[in-house]
Please model this.
Amino acid sequence: MARAFYDLAAKYDKNKWVFAALGVASYYVGTFPGGVALGLAHFYGWINIHDISDFARGLMAIPFGFLVIITIYHLLKSNWKKNLEIAPSLYEILDEDLN
Model:
């Protein structure tokens, strides 16, 4: 997950290590809604989390983390791609000033 963010940041000339750390952090931030969902399911009586092992509860939160990673990755990619297409390159700006 960090490698994908690192490579994306390198492709668009952004700070690679900051975005690699963002990739890791986004997973842990994403597991939080998974825990909240499990807590709400327990609160409403749909499941009893006391009957589920800690390991199984951790596995149940993984999809939420990956969903957040994929969402943030695609948002960054589309935003940077759009900004790259909109912003003129430095060489185009300098060439206009010389003419």
